[in-house]
Write a structure and sequence with these properties.
The complex is a heterotrimer of chains A (332), B (90) and C (505). Helix content of chain A is 67%, strand content 0%. Chain A is mainly alpha-helical and 332 residues long. Chain A has a domain at 102-327: Ribonucleotide Reductase, subunit A (Orthogonal Bundle). In chain A, helix 9 packs parallel to helix 12 (277-306). The relative contact order of chain A is 0.11. By secondary structure, chain B is of the alpha+beta class. Chain B has a single domain (4-87), classed as Monooxygenase component MmoB/DmpM (Phenol Hydroxylase P2 Protein, Alpha-Beta Complex). Chain B has helices at residues 16-25, 50-57, and strands at 4-10, 30-34, 37-43, 45-49, 70-74, 76-79, 83-87. In chain B, strands 2-3-1-5 form a four-stranded antiparallel beta sheet, with helices on one face. In chain B, helix 1 (16-25) packs across helix 2. The radius of gyration of chain B is 12 Å and the shape is globular. Chain C has a single domain, classed as Ribonucleotide Reductase, subunit A (Orthogonal Bundle), CATH 1.10.620. Chain C has 21 helices and four strands. Chain C has helices at residues 11-18, 31-34, 59-82, 95-122, 126-156, 163-167, 174-184, 188-217, 221-251, 255-273, 275-284, 292-311, 322-328, 332-343, 356-365, 370-386, 435-443, 445-448, 454-459, 468-474, 490-504; strands spanning 410-411, 414-418, 421-425, 428-432. In chain C, a hairpin with a 2-residue loop joins strand 3 and strand 4. In chain C, helix 8 (188-217) packs parallel to helix 10 (255-273). Classes of the chains: A mainly alpha (332), B alpha+beta (90), C mainly alpha (505). Chains A and C meet through helix 3, helix 5, helix 6, helix 7 and helix 8 of A and helix 3, helix 4, helix 5, helix 6 and helix 7 of C.
């Protein structure tokens, strides 16, 4: 259909919604990220208090000790809203899918030393439960967070962690010829093996952390700050000597994801710390506490896989987290 | 007492082979046309078979692709690798 | 092994390994502390493994299908904007339905996203948690695609500029807002019964299916595309709604009366909220697909009939007052339009008296009621308007304490008598519009006395000032543009100009 009306007759009367224009400082065209994020969450005149926790409102700033003048000061540097999020993840997954197909077709998993195959079962498969915990924690943060900007990045992260847990599970199915036996063993290890109990305890303790911003720091800066370099760089490199290139290919999704997470998480820390000295002090305290816990919790599995190189790896990981935190304005 | 199960699909090219497959596999089904959509009703049970859709489409078809065209359903869902079925236990 | 055997897993088994196997019972922290909210409502679950996954999308498939839907949808939205698609609609009056949608419905999608995120963390079963999380992110999709689709209309028409601000404040928007606040402040099982079952499974078809088909009929390709694209997620959501009901009913027979009470409550609350949709369908679509009454017959009487017959084996009965709601389908849209015609000076959309052919259509669709009760009134108001006496009601109406709709509905057997009920709680009197709403109040008065009733709030001076214009400014209305009669509105003036240019061209 076309309309032969002179364009000057159909000039727009406004360029964006009023609340968006207010944030932009004038009526100008806005991005889809901005229109799909800013001020979507209700802020006042809630009708009833939650029967499951009458102490709080449905959306409540006091669910964290962090204070922000404006909870939309943080904007996702990746500008992800649902549409761009699913398209970005689908693209990453398409590449991962072709790796799975190739490895399956060429029986590439069998090129790994038998010992290393066992090692992979020991370290990567139980991690799917850690990823499921990371899903829970991000879901909790998304639930309690104030404002759409932070709530939606946490929800995207939650779904991503489910996706990663499923990718890891599929590694197990490749190793055990789709019987699921490797996954059963991995769960037994997760529940009972000494190597994993520190991680499991830390994660379960995080499930009951009340302050959602502390939880966000604990999970996405500290625990993930250990897991992503340790499992997908250090362990990956260690596997090279054992014919582990299939695992290297499969690690790609997680490697890319880890980089992506740093982008928004570091920016969130930076914006939040810059708001006030009180915020910076809170973030710093949480970062120190949970980095110590995470380093300690993952040390046994690091020793199991890396042997005497483990301490060096853990030191470099600690340095990396510290540098990131400092760059974001935290004292650590 | 009504036992009608129902599936509503978009009335477009992607959904066309699915609609045709439903018609073929469910002789009792009634097809109702509305602007931009098609509502298919059937007494008690209605099935979408992968095999039939693939025949009509001339390519492999994942049953979950149904999610791209579906607008609404009524009935208990049973989704398997090779079929999608709606039914009432009445 | 001579030849490596490649086993292909069936969809159910694969899904189970990839999701259900992920969870474990915590031991370093008690389960009841990790999941503190899933047992205070009295619902007894013996075995969370008894949950049947309503659909089996793993994240890889989810990203694949959803990104494909999004690509298609945004292509339509882009082309709608580039080609000035708003000029292709049947009539500018139609846009008023879109205004009501953006201010009344889209914010609910956001509330749904946050509500499902909450329950997606709170259930101790992995199956329901994953299903809820997926719905949470779907609902975020819905609010964002709606905001993006309607962004183009906002550029050319009034009343669409401040949806979140209005949703938190405007009197008639407290009807949908309080509905969702009610669900979100309930426990996780009641939340799923209210939103997934009563709303998504039983009632949402009435909103999306005939209305979106109507949008297509009225040339609004942007809306029909987001509408149907959203509905493609809805089939999953509906399946979740039915599954959670069956799950509760199968786990323990003591759950049955609780579930029945929730169904009764949420069916009634849902039909009350859909009053707005009834009016949109019968009065706001210049070209009509079906009447509210017909939609009710198809989507409630027929589809709901089969559903409740299916659930009868658990001892579940059709919702209480379903018979009254069916009677109301003959009256609802007409009474609601009348209320808004009265108060359109305080609303962010326009109203009008339907054209003669439209009145004839209503007469034909509502042979039992329209000519007898409603047509004469509309014709009288039309005459008044033409004589320069367009009627506006300057007295603020009393609102129902539960559904928050002005108390303008009548007794269904006597459409000339206003219906109301009274309850007492701690020495105060509370008014409700119907037996359905009274039941809801009486069961949980401590909840409903908290309601933020807009008219009470105005009289208490909490809404910008003592005069109506002060309140409307507090609502962020552009007076004389967003509100009042359609005839003579800036929307109409502009639309007529565009039409005149089109004729010339």
């Amino acid at each position: 259909m076309s309309f032969d009306i002179k364009t000057n007759v159909i000039q727009p009367r406004r360029h964006t919604y009023a609340h968006i224009a207010k944030r932009l400082g004038g009526d100008k065209p806005a991005t889809r990220y901005q229109e799909g994020t800013w001020d979507l969450q209700p802020t006042v005149n809630f009708h009833y208090r939650p029967t499951w926790n009458p102490e709080r409102e449905i959306y409540d700033k006091s669910l964290t000790a962090i204070k922000m003048e404006d909870w939309y000061s943080f904007n996702d540097p990746r500008q992800l809203y649902y549409g761009t999020y699913t398209m970005a993840r689908h693209k990453m997954m398409e590449a991962e899918e072709s790796h799975f197909k190739f490895i399956d077709k060429s029986n590439m998993m069998t090129l790994m030393d038998a010992e290393w195959q066992q090692m992979v079962r020991d370290f990567i498969l139980p991690l799917r439960h850690f990823e499921w915990g990371a899903n829970m924690n991000n879901c909790d943060c998304s639930d309690k967070a104030y404002g759409t900007a932070i709530s939606q990045v946490a929800l995207f992260a939650a779904m991503d962690r489910l996706g990663i847990a499923q990718i890891i599970s599929r590694v197990g199915l490749l190793l055990d010829d789709s019987t699921g036996k490797s996954l059963d063993q991995a769960k037994a290890d997760w529940l009972d093996s000494d190597r994993w109990q520190g991680v499991r305890k830390m994660l379960e303790d995080s499930f009951v952390v009340e302050d959602w911003f502390e939880l966000l720091v604990a999970q996405n800066l500290c625990m993930d700050g250990v897991v992503f370099p340790l499992f997908y760089q250090h362990f990956d490199e260690a596997g090279q000597a054992h014919g582990g290139s299939a695992m290297s290919m499969l690690n790609e999704f997680m490697q890319d994801w880890g980089k992506d997470e740093k982008r928004w998480m570091d920016h969130l820390l930076k914006v939040t710390a810059a708001e006030s000295a009180e915020n910076a002090a809170l973030l710093s305290g949480w970062a120190v506490k949970w980095t110590d816990l995470a380093i300690e919790a993952f040390t046994p599995i690091a020793h199991h896989v890396l042997g005497d190189k483990a301490d060096e790896a853990m030191t470099s990981i600690r340095t990396e987290i510290t540098q990131r935190a400092k760059k974001s304005g935290l004292e650590i | 007492m009504s036992r009608t199960v129902s599936i509503t699909l978009q009335n477009n090219d992607d959904a066309r082979p699915i609609i045709d497959a439903i018609e073929k596999d469910n002789p009792k089904a009634t097809i109702n046309l509305y602007p931009a959509m098609v509502k298919i009703d059937c007494d008690g049970r209605l099935i979408v078979k992968q095999e039939t859709v693939e025949e009509l489409l001339g390519r492999e078809w994942d049953v979950q692709e149904l999610h791209l065209s579906i607008i609404s359903i009524a009935g208990n869902v049973d989704e398997e690798d090779d079929y999608f079925e709606l039914s009432w236990n009445i | 092994m001579a030849e490596k055997r490649k086993k292909k897993l069936g969809i159910k088994q694969r899904y189970s390994m990839l999701t259900r196997g992920l969870g474990w019972d915590t031991t370093y922290q008690p389960m009841d502390k990790v999941f503190p909210y899933d047992n205070y409502e009295g619902i007894i679950i013996h075995d969370w493994e008894g949950w049947e996954d309503p659909f089996r999308l793993t994240m890889d498939a989810y990203w694949k299908f959803q990104s494909e839907k999004e690509k298609k949808l945004y292509a339509v939205i882009d082309s709608f904007a580039q080609n000035n698609g708003h000029l292709g609609i049947t009539d500018a009056r139609y846009v008023n339905a879109i205004k009501l949608f953006l201010t009344g419905v889209s914010p609910l999608e956001y509330q749904a996203a946050r509500g499902f995120t909450h329950v997606g963390r709170q259930f101790r079963g992995v199956g329901p948690r994953v299903a809820c999380q997926m719905q949470a992110i779907d609902e975020l999709r819905h609010v964002q695609t709606q905001v993006h689709s309607m962004s183009h209309y906002n550029k050319y028409f009034d009343g669409l500029h401040s949806a979140p601000h209005m949703h938190d404040r405007v009197w008639y928007l407290s009807v949908p807002k309080s509905f969702f606040d009610d669900a979100r402040t309930a426990g996780p099982f009641e939340f799923l019964t209210s939103i997934s079952f009563a709303f998504e499974y039983v009632l949402t078809n009435l909103l999306f299916v005939p209305f979106m088909s109507g949008a297509a009929f009225n040339g609004d390709m942007a809306t029909v595309t987001f509408g149907f694209s959203a509905q493609s997620d809805e089939a999953r959501h509906m399946t979740l709604g039915l599954e959670v009901i069956k799950f509760m009913l199968e786990q323990d027979e003591r759950n049955i009366p609780i579930v029945q009470r929730w169904m009764d409550k949420w069916f009634w609350r849902g039909t009350r909220m859909l009053t707005l949709v009834a009016m949109m369908m019968d009065y706001m679509l210049p070209k009509r697909v079906m009447s509210w009454r017909e939609a009710w017959d198809i989507y409630f009487t027929e589809a709901g009939g089969a559903l409740f017959a299916d659930l009868a084996r658990y001892g579940i009965k059709p919702p209480k007052y379903a018979d009254i709601a069916t009677k109301e389908a003959e009256h609802l849209s007409h009474q609601a339009w009348h209320i808004f015609y009265n108060y359109t000076h305080a609303a962010a959309f326009h109203t009008w008296i339907p054209e003669k052919e439209e009145l004839d259509w209503l007469s034909e669709k509502y042979p039992n009621t329209f000519d007898k009760y409603y047509r004469p009134r509309l014709e009288y108001l039309d005459k008044e308007e033409k004589a320069g006496r367009r009627f506006y009601n300057d007295t603020l109406p009393m609102l129902c304490q539960v559904c928050q709709i002005p108390m303008g509905f009548t007794d269904m057997d006597d459409p000339t008598t206003i219906s109301f009920e009274v309850s007492e709680y701690k020495d105060d009197k509370y008014h409700t519009c119907s037996l359905g709403c009274k039941d809801i109040f009486d069961y949980e008065p401590e909840k409903y006395v908290q309601a933020w009733l807009p008219v009470h709030q105005i009289y208490q001076g909490n809404c910008g000032g003592a005069e109506v214009p002060d309140v409307l400014k507090w609502y962020n209305f552009n007076l004389g543009a967003d509100n009042m009669e359609y005839k003579g509105s800036p929307d109409q003036k502009l639309w007529d100009e565009w039409q005149a240019h089109r004729k010339k061209a």
